[in-house]
Amino acid sequence: xxxxxxxxxxxxxxxxxxxxxxxxxxxxxxxxxxxxxxxxxxxxxxxxxxxxxxxxxxxxxxxxxxxxxxxxxxxxxxxxxxxxxxxxxxxxxxxxxxxxxxxxxxxxxxxxxxxxxxxxxxxxxxxxxxxxxxxxxxxxxxxxxxxxxxxxxxxxxxxxxxxxxxxxxxxxxxxxxxxxxxxxxxxxxxxxxxxxxxxxxxxxxxxxxxxxxxxxxxxxxxxxxxxxxxxxxxxxxxxxxxxxxxxxxxxxxxxxx
Length: 257
Ligand code: PGA
Description:
Blueprint: E1 5-9, H1 16-31, E2 37-41, H2 47-54, E3 60-63, H3 80-84, E4 89-92, H4 95-100, H5 105-117, E5 121-126, H6 130-134, H7 138-150, H8 155-159, E6 162-165, H9 179-198, H10 200-205, E7 207-211, H11 219-223, E8 230-233, H12 240-252
Parallel strand pairs: 1-2, 1-8, 2-3, 3-4, 4-5, 5-6, 6-7, 7-8
Helix pairs in contact: 1-2, 1-12, 5-7, 7-9
């Protein structure tokens, strides 16, 4: 049985001191929902402070990106060793990295392999633009991103990856995908692609999140879908009450098959 995973992607929001206040405001409540995995992804600068706050709890801590090399002359980058000192998880290939910072399928794959090699749980983001959706290319695009991200991984490694399906048109727009549409892509595109690569058993153990304008209002229906194993939450993860409500909705949804 898959354990749901809820991650808050704070993006470029919150200084270290603001991060401390946000975590303090939700930590105790988040700690109550142990039937689901809960992960906070603050900006790098806040990670050491947040790590101190979540130490000794079951809350996971994630970086929003990382480079794939261990060390070296790569000005401005953060290595897996640096991430691993504080974090359990790492987001890879978020659409904002792809759109604004030149992230490519090839670098996503290298980062994913580095994360697995260092024992970090990777959350790999995939999703189509509005234009691709309107052209009817959602399925081929998302399947291609999944295949490119997982290239060269063993089935065992792939089973430990979390894939976040985030339609770009739904991110930060207040226009979430309908639960039915999100379920359809998570099942018929993401899980089916993984099944095609590694077989049904691996596909059934891999966790798939939905992301894109998840709120306390739409979380119950999204989390009730059989192939949606959690959420990657942006804007709503910056409000303690909202993130707690979303985690609570996931914890209350029917157990996953
Ligand atoms: P959003 O962002 O919840 O603000 O739409 C989701 C994401 O980009 O991960």
